[in-house]
Model the fold of this input.
Amino acid sequence: MSPRQLADPAFPTVVSEALLRSQLAPDLLWLEVTEGIMISEPEIALATLRRLRSLGIVWIPGFAAGMLLTGSDPVYTAIYQFIVIAMIYAAGGVTALLAASGYERAAFEDERLVAGR
Done:
């Protein structure tokens, strides 16, 4: 959803009418809400999301959007998101080092035995 759609008070009505016309179950329609929308106009965004939630079609894709929806400070949310991403990258780095170490042992083990080391 764009910020303009989320700020439009008629948007939930448009979505509801589209669901009725298409006979689509509300749980099959996913509208993605990004963090940027929540930071720019949080009060309007919350009101629209509550109306869309009553239709059964709101899905929030990440923890940052969820934190912003619950009223967390955007700076605190950004710091928290940075910490989680840093932990994911660190885990990937450790995994790569362990895999490289295991590969080195497997690849050169025969040479060491032949050389008598």
Remarks:
- The longest helix spans residues 74-115.
- The chain has two domains: 1-72, 73-117.
- The mean pLDDT is 77.
